[in-house]
Amino acid sequence: MEAKLIVRMLEKMEIIDVNQMIEEFESTTKDAGRVQRETLKKILEENGSAEYLQNLGLNGSTDPESFKACVPLVTHQDLEPYIHRITDGDTSPILTGKAITTISLSSGTTQGKPKLVPFNDELMETTMQIFRTSFAFRNREFPVGNGKALQFIYSSKQFKTKGGLNAGTATTNVYRSSQFKEEMKGMQSQYCSPDEVIFGPDFHQSLYCHLLCGLIFRGEIQSVFSPFAHSLVHAFRTFELVWEELCADIREGELSCRITVPSIRTAMSKILKPDPESADLIHKKCSGLSNWYGLIPELFPNAKYIYGIMTGSMEPYLKKLRHYAGDVPLMSADYGSSEGWIGANVNPTLPPELVTFAVLPNIGYFEFIPLSENVEEQVLGIEPKPVGLTEVKVGEEYEIVVTNVAGLYRYRLGDVVKIMGFHNSTPELKFVCRRNLMLNINIDKNTEKDLQLSVEEATKVLAEEKLEVVDFTSHVDLSTDPGHYVIFWEISGEVHLHEEALQECCNCLDRSFLDAGYIGSRKVNAIGPLELRVLQKGTFQKILDHYLGLGAAGSQFKTPRCVSLANNTVLQILCNNVAKNYFSTAFR
Hints:
Layout: H1 2-12, H2 18-30, H3 32-47, H4 51-55, H5 64-70, H6 76-87, E1 102-105, E2 116-119, H7 121-141, E3 148-151, E4 159-160, E5 166-169, H8 170-175, H9 178-186, H10 195-198, H11 203-216, E6 221-228, H12 229-252, H13 262-269, H14 276-287, H15 295-299, E7 305-309, H16 318-325, E8 330-332, E9 335-337, E10 340-344, E11 357-359, E12 365-370, H17 375-380, E13 387-388, E14 397-403, E15 411-423, E16 426-434, E17 438-439, E18 446-447, H18 448-463, E19 469-477, E20 484-491, H19 499-512, H20 516-523, E21 531-535, H21 539-549, H22 568-575, E22 578-583
Parallel strand pairs: 1-5, 3-6, 6-7, 7-8, 20-21
Antiparallel strand pairs: 1-2, 4-5, 9-10, 10-11, 11-16, 12-13, 12-14, 14-15, 15-16, 17-18, 19-20, 21-22
């Protein structure tokens, strides 16, 4: 009965009115300050009975001043006792007025283990609002017809917590929602793969079938998507390895024996028919490519754009993704996290490196902690007071604080953003880095962004050898005296053929950390020479497989950029797969 109801809903689902969506966004952002006050009032009215807010003495107040005076800034660690009570089955109003029935898991790649985050229908609605808004601006610039989308999306298994709540990765909770399917139809972005592929239990089999479905419907594909750029690059790197097998499947109309999951085989048998003509055409196109440049437009000639999160830790994959994309535009998806969404990309023609995100003032209440440059304040540990959404200054950097509809109040997200301008009265943000991802031994402070810039500089040396960095991460090794930075690289070529270039890469990495504390510490040997460890091929695949084994969704995976001792399993995978290491001679 429920399935029939969903089908009827889908049939009734209207195509999103792009102009109306843009008008609503323009109206909402004209007086963002007023909308923020109304949004906070609504959140506090709906959740005023929650134990957490009751204990803080709000006493029904819903104004920003009382809220800030009573409610402290918190991290996930502060809320863990409350969240654990919810997952253990306590149905009393703990963080929200209505009981939480679903839990989201973060990817776990940052801290080594996933965070548990409350998820509810209201949060799902804010997700869809972000999707609708960015689609409207995207479709105005790059209109899609009634075709299909090749979406590399994967759902990990949902499970029950001790208290019987549904739990899964944030993307799983979204993809399993009937509302998501409805919205995709409204956005003319129906995915070409059957549900059995998306919700399949084996990531590698699902990926193979996503590629196969894309080829079967290649003339109808209007966009290519995955939540993260890493997943897109991984998909087409995989294509390079299996393309002839995919052609054979299409030619014969028989699915490869590598697909063993019965539900996936059954679903694929309904759409895979013998088509030797298409197989020959695809084979010819692939054979004619030079080093796979322009693969995506060759395979999918009607693709208007490639879409996914391409900022922050995803930027290093852009060069390879552009190689596959040829002349098809790359477009960065919206800005959010497992805890909820923040801003939409309303300037879709900007390249990913320049993309900004306009904050939607009606999906949560946002505050911004200025990053202090006052040395005295830093030494004393004094942190500036947060400012409101409309009080931020262009050119300044801030840490975001979120109050959302699912029980997070004045929650420090840990993201650093830079204010690039305003859209009407709401700020447009650029993601800078994660605040807590820091390489630090002495007085040095190097962020994820600093690491990325150092790697970019060193890869210029590698490019002269016609090599590329497949992926990278880092570690602070304090087992030596003095401690030193370790950078792990997996490269595309054979290590022993490029010893001299890799030594120069190591020196370049060391020189390219421009933090004054690092340079000063290196000069006096308070920090030891940087070490570059070049990994055996397939090491980062082993790390991906490790996270998949823990229940992570393939599409939510992000390579951890700094691996601490706490993330022991990943560190062991890295250390056990070193092909060759080099020490910098840059500061001798």
